[in-house]
Amino acid sequence: MSTVIELFNREIVGWSISIHHNSELILSALYDALGGNDQPEIMHFDRGSEYLSEAHMDLLDSLGIKPSTSAKASPWQNGRQERFYGSFKTELGSLKNISCEGELFELVASTITYYNTRRMHTALKTNPIQYRQNYYKKKFIGEVGLTEVRDKVLQISGT
């Protein structure tokens, strides 16, 4: 499994699973992330050969994304990913009753959805999606004022 985490709110914005841990897996997760999100300025990852592969580095270069890598044997420099996978394995639970790839995919998808939408993150004091929504709500209201927001909502709703 490969994931792309938005550091701002710890949201899993892209992921992929495969029986092979190679550059195709990593690229698939990155494409998933880019499909519904703004392109990042920086991508941080460990020093795994799949991340340092020519295909991955060329894609980052062609998109103008600056690569950032952890120092060798320094997992704490990729702490958000390490923390996610520790929690993910616990929340995923046992795979003993999985009988096919489709069931595994469904279990992974539902666990990531739980992580993004319902799991409380102590540092955020909410889940990643709600944290992002709260941030933009505060930012938007702060820019235009509460009265303007109310007027805009009334205008959009037609009331």
What does this structure look like?
By secondary structure, the chain is mainly α. The protein folds into 2 domains: 118 residues, Nucleotidyltransferase, domain 5 (2-Layer Sandwich); 30 residues, no CATH class. Helices cover 53% and strands 12% of the residues. It is built from 6 helices and 4 strands; from the N terminus they run ββαβαβαααα. The strands form 2 sheets. The protein has a two-stranded antiparallel sheet with strand order 1-2. Helix 2 links the parallel strand 3 and strand 4. Helix 5 packs across helix 6. The longest helix has 17 residues.
Q: How would you summarize the topology of this molecule?
A:
Layout: E1 2-6, E2 11-16, H1 23-36, E3 42-45, H2 54-63, E4 66-69, H3 79-92, H4 101-117, H5 128-144, H6 146-157
Parallel strand pairs: 3-4
Antiparallel strand pairs: 1-2
Summarize the structure.
The protein has 159 residues and is mainly α. It is built from 6 helices and 4 strands.
